[in-house]
Amino acid sequence: MADVKITNLKKAYGNVVVLEDINLHIADGEFAVLVGPSGCGKSTLLRSISGLEKVNGGTLEIGGTMANNLTPIERGVGMVFQSYALYPHMTVAENLGFGLKISGVSAADRAPRVQEVAEMLKLDQLLDRRPRALSGGQRQRVAIGRSLARQPKIFLFDEPLSNLDAALRVEMRVELSKLHQDLKSTMIYVTHDQVEAMTMADRIVVMDAGRIMQVGKPLELFNSPKNRFVAGFLGQPATNFLKVTHVAVEGDATRIHFAGGSVLFNGTPSTLDNAIELGLRPDSLFPVGEGAEVQTTVELAEQLGDETLLHTVLDSGEKLVVKLKGQHAYKPGDKAGFRSDISAPMLFNGSGDNLFSN
Ligand code: ADP
């Protein structure tokens, strides 16, 4: 068990800077998820923590020890990759025990550890099989078990569920979360999947273009994104962004006007300087017959059974996606009016800062 402290970390490949100004403290026992679009540097950061990559600047401490120049084994990290990287000619038991074997642990001492890990991951009935006779989910469990058996100080996961089908991903996600609850180990997990990030993380680290955009608990980031990038990245369907025409303070609330209407937020931001864009979550509007604050025309209604996704357009031509609970019989061309019910306001200035975030 160990914490990870990263200070001013920089990584470049030749002239191309891939990570810059990375400052991050992951507490002992924390499940931290690195999330961001493809190419933003998540894997490079994970590989830098593991020791598979050498960094070009800054410091990395693991459990209070300076780790910049340590090998992966000296760092005490266990990595689990997207490609399971199992040894095909070895049984499950041999795969699970391999790390221990090369560390010089005797066969007699390995056996109980392998058994314990196999039981924890529900692999105990499969110990004599070879990887090709396992399902994708079982293979990934062996890959996880292999690093578990070595009892690393920190676990590093690089998109471990990407190769699994949707149902299995959900199952493994829950299993990994339970594993973390049982082990209470420090885990750092890379994904581009915001649902994995929201559901598994104690804290999410949102990255873009080699930098950290925001670090926080999942709901903190969802409710109070610091900037436009985080607001747009978390939430499905994505946040709508509308051009602001003007802003009016009404007592202790703020009304934000845009070309197709207006919405009222509780509270007032510290400044309204350069407020140019409104962020509107698809589920923050509800339909009304009269007294609509937002007027739209429906382009497409997607019926999902438990909810209805309306793809609408404002008079300005701006698109607005609205997510309604339950089933609603809208069809293309219908006029649809809404009022807002917004608990987490988002108003962005020209630099993309959320003026309502504290
Ligand atoms: P992510 O995991 O977020 O998809 P990566 O960390 O894999 O992103 O990559 C970040 C950036 O670094 C990308 O632009 C990628 O092309 C670049 N990159 C990664 N590995 C190398 C390498 N070995 N040489 C040069 N560029 C690399």
Question: How would you describe this protein?
Answer:
- With 358 residues, the chain is of the alpha+beta class.
- The protein is built from nine helices and 20 strands.
- It has helices spanning 42-50, 72-75, 92-102, 107-120, 136-149, 166-183, 194-200, 218-223, 228-233, and strands at residues 4-13, 16-26, 31-35, 57-62, 65-66, 77-80, 154-158, 186-191, 203-208, 211-216, 240-250, 253-258, 261-266, 275-280, 285-287, 294-303, 307-313, 319-325, 335-340, 346-349.
- The strands form four sheets. A six-stranded mixed beta sheet has the order 6-7-8-3-9-10, with helices on both faces. A five-stranded antiparallel beta sheet has the order 13-12-11-14-20. The chain has a five-stranded antiparallel beta sheet with strand order 15-19-16-17-18, with no helix packed on it.
- Strand 12 (253-258) and strand 13 form a beta hairpin.
- Helix 3 packs parallel to helix 5 (136-149).
- It is elongated and about 75 Å long.
- It starts with a strand and ends in a 9-residue tail after the last strand.
- The mean pLDDT is 93.
- The protein binds adenosine-5'-diphosphate (ADP).
- Residues 13, 16, 18, 36, 38-44 line the site of adenosine-5'-diphosphate.
- Residues 13, 16, 18, 36, 38-44 line the site of adenosine-5'-diphosphate (ADP).
